[in-house]
Amino acid sequence: MPLIELRDICKTYHIGELDVPVLKGVSLSVNEGELVALMGASGSGKSTLMNILGCLDHPTSGEYRLGGQEVSRLSADGRALLRNQKIGFIFQNFNLLPRTSALENVMLPLSYTLEGLSDREAQDRAMTLLDRVGLSERSHHEPSQLSGGQQQRVAIARSLINRPSLLLADEPTGNLDSRTSAEVLHMFQELNQQEAITIIIVTHDLQVAMHAKKIVRISDGQIVDGDPSGGGLQVGGIVEGYESSDVTT
Amino acid sequence: MKAYRTINTALQALGRNPMRATLTALGIIIGVAAVIAMMEIGKGSSAAIERAISSMGANNLLIHPGTAASGGVSFGGGTATTLTPQDCEAILQECPAVRSAAPDVQARTQVIYGNRNWVPLSINGSTPAYLDVRSWTDMAEGEMFTDRDVRNTSKVCVVGQTIVRELFSGASPIDKKLRIQNVLFRVVGVLSSKGANMMGADQDDIILAPWTTIKYRVMGTSLTNVNQSSSSSGSSTSTEVNSLNRLYPTSSLNLYPVPSPTQMADTPQPVRFTNVDHILACAQSSDEIPLAIRQITELLRERHRIRPNEAEDFSIRNMTEMTKTLSSTSLLMTNLLLSVALISLIVGGVGIMNIMLVSVTERTREIGLRMAVGARSKDILMQFLVEAIVMCLAGGIIGILAGCGGSYLVTLLLRWPTETSLTAIVVSVMVSATVGISFGFYPAWKASKLDPIEALRYE
């Protein structure tokens, strides 16, 4: 059953008098439990697509069904609620609150959850997740006391706190070295296999994309080959134009 | 989002940058502390000013008897003999707006001590309450005569500073005996100096004695001869009624032949009550003067059995001019303090707004993240608003403590009068919350209007 169904998504930005079309009719379907890599060069529209997938933005036209629900016409508050309940975000620069303990960072999305969770339950849930990412001993450390990989793992725990059906990772390894990158990607794979969470990794790095079951490439606002059978097969075709040294930024 | 979570979030956000939060709150702390200290010191001084003005007699009411007339000849204001000492007591008991009241009997005659003589501006016969009415309670020396002295018609008196200077050449007059007419008075006290009154009359040129003594022993007036219209009728009745006159023969001259008992029987004199010249009353406060006048009027009309459409046989005067000065002074003080308060709080508020704007810019990424994980713009608005309000309220509370402490120190060190004012505290708490809301709103609104995508990308 498809979790994500995009039909003819167009997004046009108005810059002054100019209309800049960024997405030109993107159609995409992602099944529940898939691990997808979304690839594309900068300016290809992959960030815009990710924003729309993450319900941070709404498309100019087209349909977006998330878990069977039409979400492209939701109000800002409706989208906020949806993000809170169904989508977990992982960012390139972690975006943890400074001078706030890992535990509190993980609990952050719960502040905006409508269902009243007691402090005790919230803490228990956050601790379980920190344990899951292997940081239960660091729960009271502040982000500045954690390494990059640990910070990203805190961010992953945070994204999982509301038990989302979709994880959106935007260049999750962009700020990590290759060893921690592998760790984080391994964690994604594990989550995908064990918890059957649908994960979309946005990246321009083939090494990262190779960890996915499926690669979706976007170029100039359109899906280039939306339905490859296996990610690894296209390696030869895509390699030009990408530098593998990008892994460590 | 639950209220306590919002407050918790705000506290955490403030706690992340305690130095900045403290400095921002300092604006409000100083503002509120200044307001409280100003209000307390100002209230103290305005109360002191009020006291000073009211000691000049601003709260005083002067009750005069009405006009006597005989055969179409009016004898002028205050000539009727309608006011009694009992009226005075009744006023004190039955008019709640009156703080104190004293009868007043006046004489003007020569006073002799040793080889010196003097005619004081006023020789007043009254009760000990007289000093309270005139806000003249502190004595320079000795003590005021007592109510018992009034009842006993004791020959004691209290003198003003001018009398001390003129009769006693500045020496202590306590227990010395001065002569008024032919009556010897023992001086029991010296009044403190009061200076001239508003008309320039020397208020220290005064001798105070029990009104009974002045009335019966000095003036020798009794029931019949107080009224000019009947003063020619001799004093036989009075001597009969008041045995004191026989002991102290002050009215020695009889210009007119003493009427024979037959004549007396043919022209009976109405037997009248003892009267006093004025009654001095003092209202509880300057605001209550009209109320006091109303109460006294009602009471005296009733006591004097005046029918509703009849004219009163007394009149009440107040010091309107002084009262106006008093109220305009306190109004001026209040307005002055209010404007100072407003300015300092606005300055504090602008400080809060400034810092909150900086904070919003600095925390753009945080706002973007919060929005990404599900914060609605309403939540962000509340978060920043609550932060501002928490800062203002905390600043307000510390400011109240600082202000109270400051005014206490001022009282302690400079001996300025201060008065704790609950209104000031309530007002500054409310004002600091209002400042927090009004000056915190714009930055909070700005934060809530951020686009999550832009905010997340903000460097």
Automatic annotation (TrEMBL), chain A:
<keyword id="KW-0547">Nucleotide-binding</keyword>
<keyword id="KW-0067">ATP-binding</keyword>
<dbReference type="GO" id="GO:0005524">
    <property type="term" value="F:ATP binding"/>
</dbReference>
<dbReference type="InterPro" id="IPR017911">
    <property type="entry name" value="MacB-like_ATP-bd"/>
</dbReference>
<protein>
    <submittedName>
        <fullName>Fused macrolide transporter subunits of ABC superfamily: ATP-binding component membrane component</fullName>
    </submittedName>
</protein>
<dbReference type="InterPro" id="IPR027417">
    <property type="entry name" value="P-loop_NTPase"/>
</dbReference>
<dbReference type="GO" id="GO:0005886">
    <property type="term" value="C:plasma membrane"/>
</dbReference>
<feature type="domain" description="ABC transporter">
    <location>
        <begin position="4"/>
        <end position="245"/>
    </location>
</feature>
<dbReference type="InterPro" id="IPR015854">
    <property type="entry name" value="ABC_transpr_LolD-like"/>
</dbReference>
<dbReference type="InterPro" id="IPR017871">
    <property type="entry name" value="ABC_transporter-like_CS"/>
</dbReference>
<dbReference type="InterPro" id="IPR003439">
    <property type="entry name" value="ABC_transporter-like_ATP-bd"/>
</dbReference>
<dbReference type="InterPro" id="IPR003593">
    <property type="entry name" value="AAA+_ATPase"/>
</dbReference>
<dbReference type="GO" id="GO:0016887">
    <property type="term" value="F:ATP hydrolysis activity"/>
</dbReference>
<keyword id="KW-0813">Transport</keyword>
<dbReference type="GO" id="GO:0098796">
    <property type="term" value="C:membrane protein complex"/>
</dbReference>
<comment type="similarity">
    <text>Belongs to the ABC transporter superfamily. Macrolide exporter (TC 3.A.1.122) family.</text>
</comment>
<dbReference type="Pfam" id="PF00005">
    <property type="entry name" value="ABC_tran"/>
</dbReference>
<dbReference type="GO" id="GO:0022857">
    <property type="term" value="F:transmembrane transporter activity"/>
</dbReference>
UniProtKB/TrEMBL annotation, chain B:
<feature type="transmembrane region" description="Helical">
    <location>
        <begin position="422"/>
        <end position="442"/>
    </location>
</feature>
<keyword id="KW-1003">Cell membrane</keyword>
<keyword id="KW-0067">ATP-binding</keyword>
<keyword id="KW-0472">Membrane</keyword>
<dbReference type="InterPro" id="IPR025857">
    <property type="entry name" value="MacB_PCD"/>
</dbReference>
<feature type="transmembrane region" description="Helical">
    <location>
        <begin position="380"/>
        <end position="402"/>
    </location>
</feature>
<dbReference type="GO" id="GO:0005524">
    <property type="term" value="F:ATP binding"/>
</dbReference>
<dbReference type="GO" id="GO:0022857">
    <property type="term" value="F:transmembrane transporter activity"/>
</dbReference>
<keyword id="KW-1133">Transmembrane helix</keyword>
<feature type="transmembrane region" description="Helical">
    <location>
        <begin position="21"/>
        <end position="39"/>
    </location>
</feature>
<dbReference type="Pfam" id="PF12704">
    <property type="entry name" value="MacB_PCD"/>
</dbReference>
<dbReference type="InterPro" id="IPR050250">
    <property type="entry name" value="Macrolide_Exporter_MacB"/>
</dbReference>
<comment type="similarity">
    <text>Belongs to the ABC-4 integral membrane protein family.</text>
</comment>
<dbReference type="GO" id="GO:0005886">
    <property type="term" value="C:plasma membrane"/>
</dbReference>
<dbReference type="InterPro" id="IPR003838">
    <property type="entry name" value="ABC3_permease_C"/>
</dbReference>
<keyword id="KW-0547">Nucleotide-binding</keyword>
<feature type="domain" description="MacB-like periplasmic core">
    <location>
        <begin position="22"/>
        <end position="224"/>
    </location>
</feature>
<feature type="transmembrane region" description="Helical">
    <location>
        <begin position="336"/>
        <end position="360"/>
    </location>
</feature>
<dbReference type="Pfam" id="PF02687">
    <property type="entry name" value="FtsX"/>
</dbReference>
<protein>
    <submittedName>
        <fullName>Macrolide export ATP-binding/permease protein macB</fullName>
    </submittedName>
</protein>
<keyword id="KW-0812">Transmembrane</keyword>
<feature type="domain" description="ABC3 transporter permease C-terminal">
    <location>
        <begin position="339"/>
        <end position="452"/>
    </location>
</feature>
